[in-house]
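Example 3.2
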Amino acid sequence: MNCLKKYILSIIIILGLSKSYAQQTIQLSQYIFNGLVVNPAYAGYKEDWTVNLSSRLQWVGVDGAPKTGTLSVDGVTDPDTKNIGLGLLVTNDRLGPENNSAVYANYAYRIRLNNDDSQRLCFGVGVGAIVYTIDGSLFNTGSSTDPAISPYLQNKLAPDFRAGVYYYSPLFYLGASALNLIPNAYPDPVSIFIKEVRTYYLTTGFVIPVSSDVNWKPSVLYKEDFKGPSNISAASYFLFGDILWVGASYSTSISLWNKPNLQGDLNKNGALTGAVAVNITPQCRFGYSYDFGTGKLSGYQSASHEVSFSYSFKRAKGRILSPRFF
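Structure, written as tokens:
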């Protein structure tokens, strides 16, 4: 069984390192609790300075399985006008011998749309850098003299730029963003590193009060890079008494149009996720999610876990006029 797992993972890695295009942005099930990961215009949405931490362990038990971690800090600079949001995002994504680390400084200009300041239209940019690392010593090629893979560490530093727009009201949000806008900063025809491609996100969600103590929050995330499969994730969460979040989401690839460079018989089975989160205090939240794979690899995915934590530092001056469900 161990050998079979290693063989499957080796195929995944080789496909990822080949000249084929691939979606490369990090995968998180609980993105709804930290919009800065997919949209720089989200910076300052909660107004109070907020720290978000998340860790994702995918296919636990499979050697070299994906591991993802994020840290973000964001808030508004002026608690009175709330027109400028700033954010810092740090990510690390590991898959077998490959490790990608990135850091972004995010800026959002937030336009007030109504007198009670419950609606804002935000425009954001993120500037950062990605360090791509491949440890050739971790490959098991079956040949000690394979000239295609160096047995040493190989690094590549590349700049990155992202942009987005984000609209929100107390019970609705809509966002669009473009990530990895500098996809070929250092093109190298013989590089073993993945070729970067631009990735676009469209996100939306709303809140429906079910009763005085229960709110329903459905949301959708659509991801597209025009090279790999289009991906959509639909989530449904219930908030009980402003304390307990319980929900589920389903992610799958979809075919909206013909992509000539894409293999036609790709399996489109997705993943079902169950999640819970607890607002320990009005400023502190802890979340956990578990992924149930439904594809051909589901038999080898002993578990996929994700945990998240956030804490908002309450300001002595200024106040939030409407609840922050997103």
